[in-house]
């Protein structure tokens, strides 16, 4: 079984914990301390929030400045359009900034925001039944 760990530097760990708690995520306290907080996204997906000083222990060179450019998009799947809208609303209420307009392209629906440290998060719902129906009716591309 593979696991995915996204590591993100944060300026204020307490504020980041409050933000991700407001989004509905829990924390694994076995892997959290004064310098790190492990956000449980799903059983095999976690986000390690690290104070900037602690994050520097894991990288070569200076930290990227998310205000100067986007270095990574953290994308999460959603079960429904409603879940996309709900997570976006909770994020904005907890201090996130809107990033791009809501995307509504047929079976794909998504929203995005910047967390309090400037990291970009996308939340996407893909209506797989609509995709399957389009592919069955010849609506999908068969390649080049």
UniProtKB/TrEMBL annotation:
Where is the VOC domain positioned along the sequence? Answer: 2-126
According to its UniProt record, what is one Pfam family this protein matches?
Glyoxalase
Its protein name is Glyoxalase
Entry-linked PANTHER family: BLR2408 PROTEIN (PTHR36503:SF2), BLR2520 PROTEIN (PTHR36503)
Q: InterPro entries from the xrefs?
A: Glyas_Bleomycin-R_OHBP_Dase (IPR029068), Glyas_Fos-R_dOase_dom (IPR004360), VOC_core (IPR037523)
Task: Tell me where on the tree of life, at the top rank, the source sits.
Answer: Bacteria
What organism does the record attribute this protein to? Streptomyces calidiresistens
């Amino acid at each position: 079984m593979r696991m995915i760990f996204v590591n993100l530097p944060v300026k204020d760990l307490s504020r980041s914990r409050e933000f991700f708690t407001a989004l509905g995520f829990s924390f694994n306290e076995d892997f959290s301390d004064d310098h790190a907080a492990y956000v449980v996204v799903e059983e095999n997906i976690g986000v390690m929030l690290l104070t900037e000083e602690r994050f520097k222990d894991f990288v070569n060179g200076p930290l990227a400045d998310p205000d100067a450019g986007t270095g990574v998009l953290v994308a999460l799947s959603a079960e429904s359009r409603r879940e996309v809208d709900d997570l976006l609303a909770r994020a904005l209420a907890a201090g996130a900034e809107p990033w791009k307009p809501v995307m509504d392209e047929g079976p794909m629906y998504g929203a995005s925001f910047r967390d309090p440290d400037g990291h970009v998060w996308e939340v996407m719902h893909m209506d797989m039944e609509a995709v399957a129906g389009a592919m069955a009716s010849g609506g999908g591309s068969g390649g080049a």
